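Table 4 source record.
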Amino acid sequence: MTLPEWAVVTPERGAHIERVAALLSTWATALRVPAAERARWLRAAWLHDALRDAPAADELQHGPMAAERAARDGERDPGVLDAVRYHSLGHARWDDVGKMLYLADYLEPGRPFDREAHRALAARVPGERDAVLRDVAARRIARVIDSGWPLVRETVDFWNSLLAP
């Protein structure tokens, strides 16, 4: 799979998307994920930032924009569409594709911050996915708080869902 023809990405963004897809593929292999589920993960990877560099995109709108465009282009899987739509925010009702995309988007090895910590977290995903998911969500939420931005309802609900027994 590759970027859709309607994608608007810089070469750097394209490289990020490729790294996200590669990390998801690695995890799918380690977890012995069935081919159909692996395909869902990879579709979400290739779509998640497909409009990140579009003129009207911003940090919170590029996911919904890409999900809407993907749906118009024929993507019908609600889990893939929700993964793309909320990949920057988190979503309380995600299935595995959303959770795995959220992790891979943050932990892919090209991110310029906390590389050693990210590498260690990424290595733990196949055996401790839920624990790593809580850790990554906490890191992402702390970054939002430290930046002085408000937490959106989706992120708060996502965090609370991770704490539920």
